[in-house]
Amino acid sequence: MSFTGFPEAALDFYDDLEIDNSKVFWEAHKGMYRDSVAAPMTALTGELADEFGEAKIFRPYRDVRFSKDKTPYKTHQGAFVAVGPATGYYVQIGAPGFRVGAGFYDADSERLARFRRAIDDDLHGAELERILATLRRKGWEIGGNRLKTAPRGWAKDHPRIELLRHRSMTVSRDYGFDEVIHTPELVDRVRVHWRETRQLLNWLTQHGT
């Protein structure tokens, strides 16, 4: 199946789901989810697989076991292409529109320690700073979960303390409601933007594994 774009119905579906996140709504509209959201996302990531690899299309159901929020369904559809442990490329569609991202989303204490040793190293740390500065100039937003203060064992005045505070590190850019998301040209747009993040992912996989 070739990707032809996400229909307007995909955005409408998530607009309505945010208002009525219930099993009754889902059962009445699961055909719209299948045809307007899941099928186009599968087609989009399928066309990118030749260069980036096979994507995991996330399930639409929330894990509510340990959450105060018991709404059963995610209000967006994401897909992830792994290049390392919890590290890779990401795309998402939801009520706010379409977005792309990349980075690492989770790390145990040993992996975080490896990242931080690389950030502390003048050569590798400076390389990461250059990569992130280039991505910022190209319009990427730097994000991720960060400590409020210095991690244990690191000085608060470390020259790269802002990077050392990261427990995860992501870059993202928002397409919003750009008309391209409704066209086949979205494949090429995502391809170009994912390529821009390749240096970052290479750094993360090199120093986190």
UniProtKB/TrEMBL annotation:
Domain of life: Bacteria
InterPro entries reported in the protein's UniProt record: CHP02453 (IPR012808), UCP028451 (IPR015996)
Coiled-coil stretches noted in the UniProt entry, renumbered to this chain: none
Annotated TM spans: none
Protein name: DUF2461 domain-containing protein
Biological source species: Gordonia hydrophobica
